[in-house]
What does this fold into?
Amino acid sequence: MVLTAPTVGATDMETRLTLAEILDHLTAEGALYERAADGRLRCHACAHQCLIGAGRRGICKVRFERDGALRVPWGYVGALQCDPVEKKPFFHALPGTDALTFGMLGCDMHCAYCQNWIVSQTLRDTHAGAPPMRVTPKELVALAKAQGARFVVSSYNEPLITAEWAVAVFKEAKAQGLLTGFVSNGNATRAVLEYIRPWTDCYKIDLKTMSDRSYRQLGTTLEHVLEGVRMVHELGFWLEIVTLVVPGFNDSDAELHDAAQFIASISPDIPWHVTAFHKDYKMTENDDTTAADLLRAVEFGRAAGLRYIYAGNLPGCVGPWEDTRCPTCQRTLIRRYGYVILDYQITPAGACPDCGTHIPGIWPPGGRADVRLGETLFDLFRRVPRPVSRLRSDVVS
It folds into this structure.
């Protein structure tokens, strides 16, 4: 694929290079690898743990061997947006705030319904690819501060495969008092999770299916992801889990039951978001998810004993399942409509004001006074993802 438009700050020479050549230039030596006995490089960024020979690439296509070292993505973003934190979704982490969200290019999986395939399937699908925008960690954090964001999140493509860059950004973000997070497929290794843990607060995992066969169609195994969930929880990240309910793919009673039971076996306090699918990328034959589909999934979560279940992507259509309720006395603590917080009652100490039950999460220290609330139709239109202007020439490397 040849770029049809120059990258921001690109030289004339760069505009004539293929996207692969430009991305290979925007790299640094990785930290998450070791040399095998036969001289090949074992990458530990994701559960594939690719064994990469001379001049070869890993499954993700963007981590590769050159001159005896593993080169990894560095110094650019392929997507950049300021999102409501509820879009990630993190419902138990600073509700009502914004997250400067960045992604790079490439992925270790190839989901047929990926909504971000333009960036995730780069170098795998000839129709995918976005011009990279060069930037430094300091500049990204400055953009977050300028946007009023209190989070910096790595998302859109799979952040595990660009973990070294995320850590560089997150170190700057943490120094400025911002929260940090991964939005991930969970196809992790202990090595990568221990590497990012000192700099990463929150971790969202897509639990896509409870069928190993289906997971292999997407590009990994069920056990890799289940083990990823176990490790993320064990290492103390704030964890929320999403299951995109896809009719005809993962919406059987057996799979929804198994997903809820698995999450409850790790902790009933892990929020489970069941969200609505719409036709995208290569999956255009399956029906869109209905509110009834989501409410059926909610019932499996309730039966499993999960305390915080949310039905997403269909605001106003799922009754109280957009809200956070106290699991002890059932008081509504956070009332939502889509990404808008309509009411907030959790105390500054993170508890129900009626019965004192502790509500797990990362809550604003000022309580209700520290939460941006919405009331009018205007708020519904204002509380949406917003593009961050392309990086200006005076803020690129």
The chain has three domains: 12-74, 76-319, 323-384. Residues 1-15, 392-397 have pLDDT under 50 and may be disordered.
